[in-house]
Amino acid sequence: MSADADPILEVKGLTKLHGGGCSRCLDSTGPEAGSNVCPHCGTVVACADVNLNLTRGEVLGVMGESGSGKSTLVRLLYGDEAPTCGSVLFFDPATPAASRTPIDLPALNARQARDLRNRRFGIVHQNPHLGLNFRISAGGNIAERLLMGGEMRYAHIRERARQLLMRCEVAASRMDELPGRFSGGMQQRVQIARALATNPPLLFLDEVTTGLDVSVQARILDLILGLQHQFGVSMIAVTHDLGVIRMLASRTLVMKMGRIVESGLTDQILEDPQHAYTQQLVASSL
Amino acid sequence: MNAAYRSDGYAFGFLDGRAKKELRRAMLKAVCLPGYQVPYASREMPILRGFGTGGLQLTLALIGPSDTVKVIDQGADDSVNAVNLRQFIALTCPGTTATTRTREATLIQTRHRIPEQPLRADQILVLQVPYPDPLIVVEPSEERRKTMHGEADYSRLWVKLYEDLVHFDEITISHRYPTRIAGHYVIDPSPIPRWDVPKLHQAECLYLFGAGREKKIYAVPPHTDAEPLTFDDVAFRVEDFTDPVSGQRYACARCGATDSFLDELIGEDGRKIHQCSDADYCQGRLNALQRMQNAPEAA
């Protein structure tokens, strides 16, 4: 990807420590040290010095084993957690390119961050229980996102929720049912519909297909790809499933022990992995 | 009131000076931040929590010897809760006058109703509140509720309204209707019927809300916006007293009023009748009707 392409997200030096931290934390942890717990002070280095760029309409894959910091990265970017240090610059495509100034996400106050998240970001979790409220109807879950985004017309909310569910291949006749009565795949579709409700330019996918059977996985991925083509949404897809990476992502990062160990075009990484860990990861899945 | 009720054993207004000072400061803060729930140290009162201790503490901190007090329980002055509170105020606040007339009162403590007669700028209405936080229905954690209030994050209340409209075609909240004050905080206006909610909007008088058990005070100051939550294309509605048979509005069986909030009762003949919930309003109309009937005879 060329550096002068239309950027949407620029992440520099993003670091998250759980614990007090000391001056030697970053040097004494990581893939070389074989641990992400600092031997000097016991701090857990969840994510250290992560740099990444995302351009408009691009899908970036993030892969790595459990505990490699993938989910922490998404939580930091989405604003669920505050980073220890580092900057996350968001370039809102809704503002004209000439007057576009980047928004530094960690510098926003709680209300600004929530507003931005509600209007401009979407997230799909691995577990539908994290992304959906199971005590309100599927339509209500989508309505919640729309209401958070400031839509106050009941008829519009109904119509938009119906459209979104139909686009995500959930029968509109079931929009007033509780999500608990849906199958796992349908719950995931409702989650996607909810995430897309406010037409966000940026979508986070956190292990969206884990736990679904293979045919449902394929259809969910098809749906995501279709939506990506239709709306040009930028996505960050976190997964440990190489198939998902291969199908969705044009570029991929490989994480281990909170660090990015390799990054590049997905085909390159999967066909010719450079880092020993990536080689092991690719080999083990084939 | 009866002099026999007066006791010199109590400080004026029962509460000690420090308690009153704290309550007054909390009330001032509540007025300055319309709709914000100000925490305060709710004192032990000689009635049980949940029986109006919050309202009573506000009343006792506000009252002075020149005040005229009215106590309302569900619109009536003569139900047990109202009578007991009125006697207690008379006992501990010598010099004050008790009344049942809305227009004579300077200080009105009420449970679940706002009087029909519009209140004036020199009157204060104190409401007894069981549950001060409207967000309790959607968020169990008080810490998160405080953040939601601070950020004016009320979308989940609207989701509840949405779900109501989906399942019942109308908003089913009959009382404690969430109401947005001065464009920011949403309050639980205590269990007043929907009928009374519009009376909070741009009123002449000061409304004070006291929750004794939950230890919160909040206020709707005079000339403040109070908007019940609703959608742009779904209007807020008050109770409808139209008779489904005749298509006409029910009238009060005592005074014939067709512009008041009605209670449904079973009459002596076993049939349903309707009667004004606000006893003083009903009596006032009856007295006026009687005067009109007597006037020609006198002339």
The fraction of residues in strands of chain A falls at: 15-25%
CATH hierarchy class name of the largest domain in chain B: Alpha Beta
Could you state the order of secondary-structure elements of chain B as H and E?
A: HEHEHEEEHHEEEEEEEH
The largest sheet of chain A, given as strand count, sense and whether it forms a barrel, is: 6 strands, mixed
CATH superfamily grouping of the largest domain in chain B: Bacterial phosphonate metabolism protein PhnH
What's the structural domain tally of chain A?
Answer: 1
CATH topology of the largest domain in chain B: Rossmann fold
Keywords:
heterodimer, A: 286 residues, alpha/beta, Rossmann fold, 6-stranded mixed β-sheet, 4-stranded antiparallel β-sheet, 10 helices, 10 strands, globular, B: 299 residues, 7-stranded mixed β-sheet, 3-stranded antiparallel β-sheet, 6 helices, 16% strand, disordered N terminus
Structural topology:
The complex is a heterodimer of chains A (286) and B (299).
Chain A: E1 7-18, E2 44-55, E3 59-63, H1 70-78, E4 85-90, E5 103-104, H2 110-120, E6 121-124, H3 128-131, H4 138-148, H5 154-167, H6 184-196, E7 202-206, H7 214-231, E8 234-239, H8 242-248, E9 251-256, E10 259-265, H9 266-271, H10 276-285
Parallel strand pairs in A: 3-8, 3-9, 6-7, 7-8
Antiparallel strand pairs in A: 1-2, 1-4, 4-5, 9-10
Helix pairs in contact in A: 4-5, 4-6, 5-6, 6-7
Chain B: H1 17-32, E1 38-39, H2 53-62, E2 68-73, H3 80-92, E3 97-98, E4 107-111, E5 124-128, H4 142-150, H5 155-168, E6 179-181, E7 186-187, E8 206-211, E9 216-220, E10 226-228, E11 262-266, E12 272-276, H6 279-298
Parallel strand pairs in B: 2-3, 2-4, 4-5, 5-8
Antiparallel strand pairs in B: 1-9, 6-7, 6-10, 8-9, 11-12
Helix pairs in contact in B: 1-2
How would you describe this protein?
Chain A is of the alpha/beta class and 286 residues long. Chain A has one domain (7-124, 201-285): Rossmann fold. Chain A has 10 helices and 10 strands. Chain A has helices spanning 70-78, 110-120, 128-131, 138-148, 154-167, 184-196, 214-231, 242-248, 266-271, 276-285; strands at 7-18, 44-55, 59-63, 85-90, 103-104, 121-124, 202-206, 234-239, 251-256, 259-265. Chain A has a 6-stranded mixed sheet, with helices on both faces. In chain A, strands 2-1-4-5 form a 4-stranded antiparallel sheet, covered by helices on one side. In chain A, a hairpin with a 2-residue loop joins strand 9 and strand 10 (259-265). In chain A, helix 4 (138-148) crosses helix 5 (154-167) and helix 6 (184-196) packs parallel to helix 7. The radius of gyration of chain A is 19 Å and the shape is globular. Chain A starts with 6 loop residues before the first strand and ends with a helix. The mean pLDDT of chain A is 88. Chain B has a 7-stranded mixed sheet with strand order 1-9-8-5-4-2-3. Residues 1-6 of chain B have low confidence and may be disordered. In chain B, strand 2, helix 3 (80-92) and strand 3 (97-98) form a beta-alpha-beta unit. Chain B is an alpha/beta fold. Chain B folds into 2 domains: 3-132 and 181-227, 3-Layer(aba) Sandwich (Rossmann fold); 240-293, no CATH class. Chain A binds chain B through residues 110-111, 114, 133, 136-137, 139-140, 143-144, 147-148, 152-157, 176, and chain B through 147, 150-153, 155-156, 158-159, 162-163, 165-167, 231-234.
